[in-house]
């Protein structure tokens, strides 16, 4: 069993911080939080001081996928497991951890090149949360959502998440020949991560981040709001076959997507078995209008 309880935070660097502000606050209804970099954009979804952290820089890339554990003992256990696998682990300083709004953080790189952080003791903000559409984000015991991570070292990356970090297999889908995208969970959310074969491990290092809200109306309102502001819809509304999410995908500034959905399945591990889906959606999710995702464009093109 894994020590990881959920996706805790995502830190991203971007060249387009002003466009991100419009995208996240006006388009997707995130609440503005606070954080250490005065030029950063800190986005609140719940009582955490921030969940999605954008900092300005000269490229668009993921800085850290932050996974949460219960406490210092669980963090020590994860550190031991990762070190035993031959992966070097760095303990962040108190100042660096404070910048992530966590008590203690360790960092390492997964076999796909993704910068990973594991933390405990997230800092809370008890002020009322005012989201853009009065929607509630579905977080709590299910974490902030899920990430889809691209990797050129697919088998090794899957093994690392399953066997070193202890993520549970939550099904797969063939994407050409015998190659399968693999979905993985750590809580009742169907998947907190999916691992996807990709031609490179460079920027941005993300395929998408999924966030879930409490009503279909909020999903529809967000879809209208991002369209009105000129953001590119990567996939139309649809319902997924594995996590049952009704969602759309919109291109974030920086070449990766935000999936925005509702009605996600709650997995009951008592009865669950890992299944292979043969279609990713029952209806909708038309990707024909999508601009190429940067994670799948070979370097130099
Ligand atoms: Fe997704």
Automatic annotation (TrEMBL):
Keywords: Aromatic hydrocarbons catabolism, Dioxygenase, Iron, Metal-binding, Oxidoreductase. Its cofactor is Fe(2+). Pfam families: BphC_D1, Glyoxalase. One of its GO terms (molecular function) is dioxygenase activity. Residues 6-121, 143-263 form the VOC domain. InterPro entries: Glyas_Bleomycin-R_OHBP_Dase, Glyas_Fos-R_dOase_dom, VOC_core, Xdiol_ring_cleave_dOase_1/2. Belongs to the extradiol ring-cleavage dioxygenase family. This is 2,3-dihydroxybiphenyl 1,2-dioxygenase. It comes from Actinomadura physcomitrii.
């Amino acid at each position: 069993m894994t020590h990881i309880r959920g996706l805790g935070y995502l830190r991203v660097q971007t060249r387009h911080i002003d466009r991100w502000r419009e995208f996240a606050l006006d388009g997707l209804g995130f609440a503005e939080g606070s954080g250490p970099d005065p030029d950063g954009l800190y986005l609140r979804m719940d009582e955490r001081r921030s969940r999605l952290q954008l900092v300005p820089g000269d490229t668009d890339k993921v800085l850290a996928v932050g996974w949460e554990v219960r406490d210092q003992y669980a963090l020590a256990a994860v550190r031991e497991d990762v070190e035993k696998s031959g992966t070097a682990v760095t303990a962040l300083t108190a100042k660096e951890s404070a910048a992530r709004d966590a008590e203690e953080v360790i960092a390492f790189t997964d076999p796909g090149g993704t910068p990973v952080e594991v933390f405990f003791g997230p800092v809370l903000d008890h002020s009322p949360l005012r989201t853009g559409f009065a929607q509630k984000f579905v977080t709590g015991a299910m974490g902030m959502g899920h990430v889809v991570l691209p990797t050129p070292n697919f088998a090794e990356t899957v093994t690392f998440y399953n066997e070193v970090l202890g993520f549970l297999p939550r099904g797969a889908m063939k994407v050409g020949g015998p190659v399968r995208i693999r979905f993985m969970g750590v809580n009742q959310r169907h998947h907190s991560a999916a691992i996807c074969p990709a031609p490179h491990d460079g920027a941005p290092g993300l395929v998408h981040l999924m966030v879930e809200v409490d009503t279909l109306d909020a999903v529809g309102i967000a879809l209208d709001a991002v369209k009105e502001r000129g953001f590119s819809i990567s996939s139309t509304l649809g319902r997924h076959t594995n996590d049952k999410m009704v969602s759309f995908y919109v291109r974030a500034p920086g070449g990766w997507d935000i999936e925005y959905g509702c009605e996600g399945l709650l997995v009951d591990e008592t009865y669950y078995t890992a299944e292979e889906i043969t279609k990713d959606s029952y209806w909708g999710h038309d990707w024909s209008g999508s601009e190429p995702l940067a994670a799948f464009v070979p370097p130099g093109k």
